[in-house]
Design brief:
heterodimer, A: alpha+beta, mini-chromosome maintenance (MCM) complex, domain 2, four-stranded antiparallel beta sheet, three-stranded antiparallel beta sheet, 2 helices, 7 strands, B: mainly alpha
């Protein structure tokens, strides 16, 4: 393996670590789940309220489950179902994307209306 | 591919091309069957890229491009949807652009070229995803993981191809050179 190969690997890994670290710094426990379909906001749900929401996407749907202060997709009718396999998200900035349905589920941080992090 | 048509080794080229195309489609399918999936979107091994890399180093860039695009179209129509084909094409084309350029520049070995290709593939797909979802934040969220996975998978595939190449020189009549 050439020396340049190692340099490339090192530089990219460093960039990734830096990027992740920067994001981690601004990440707090989330309070809201923001759902957008095709770039349009379609709903916002509190993370402290346990519920299951059916989201209608462009060419299909997915079920968003909010439980124990985190959000996950439990069911979807897309062919690859990558969104279902992904881990639950709970920190601000964390995202679950469902590409076929153009659904984007994003955790927002900051102050929740009424509720507190206590609910967790 | 340039010049193959008027050379005696055209039948050899066609045979090798067919074999590698079949291998690429099969490898892509095998990858889908692997039960242990990393629960992060877009992370995959990229076994099929190994066949594309082999083509790039055994023959030339145009034949690697042809192989990659045919593979994406064929396995797309066989196993998935039109949408998946578009994502794959975005990743595949961007990846080959980078790999073709870097191979020409000769500053990286095969693992380095493979790594850069894998990273470019991931960035290409992510860019299309961000366009579809109209969200830059989602792009930033996935970028670190996809960068790391590009380095790791690209390295693995690149080392495999580098070790395989000297043993496969009979495929292109010994014309293989680094």
């Amino acid at each position: 393996m050439k020396k340049n190969d190692w340099i490339l690997a090192g530089v990219v890994l460093l960039a990734a670590a830096l990027l992740a670290w920067m994001q981690q710094g601004s990440r707090q426990t989330g309070s809201r789940v923001l759902v957008t379909v095709d770039g349009q906001e379609s709903g916002a749900y509190s993370l402290s309220q346990e519920q299951t929401v059916r989201i209608e996407g462009k060419n299909g749907y997915c079920l968003l489950q909010i439980k124990n202060g985190s959000a996950s997709v439990t069911e979807a009718d897309c062919p690859d179902r990558l969104c279902v396999r992904q881990h639950a998200v709970s920190k601000s900035g964390e995202t679950i994307a469902c590409l076929p349905g153009r659904i984007l589920i994003r955790i927002e941080g900051g102050e929740d209306s009424g509720y507190d992090a206590v609910a967790k | 591919m340039k010049g193959y048509a008027d050379r005696k080794d055209l039948p050899r080229f066609i045979a090798v091309f067919g074999c590698l195309l079949a291998a690429a489609i099969l490898l892509g399918y095998v990858e889908m069957l692997i039960p242990i999936q990393i629960p992060i979107q877009g992370v995959k091994l990229g076994l099929a890229n190994g066949a594309v890399l082999l083509m790039l180093y055994l023959f030339d860039a145009p034949s690697a491009w042809l192989l990659s695009i045919l593979r994406i179209l064929l396995s797309g129509f066989l196993f998935s949807s039109l949408m998946t084909i578009l994502y794959s094409l975005a990743g595949g084309i961007f990846s080959l652009l980078v790999m073709t350029l870097l191979k020409k520049l000769r500053i990286f070995g095969i693992p380095g070229v493979s790594m850069a290709g894998a990273i470019a593939h991931n960035i290409g797909q992510l860019a299309v995803a961000a366009l579809v979802l109209r969200s830059v934040e989602s792009l930033l969220f996935y970028l670190p993981v996809l960068l790391v996975s590009g380095v790791v998978t690209g390295l693995v595939i690149g080392v495999i191809v580098r070790e395989l190449l000297p043993k496969l020189t009979f495929l292109n009549n010994g014309g293989y050179q680094l």
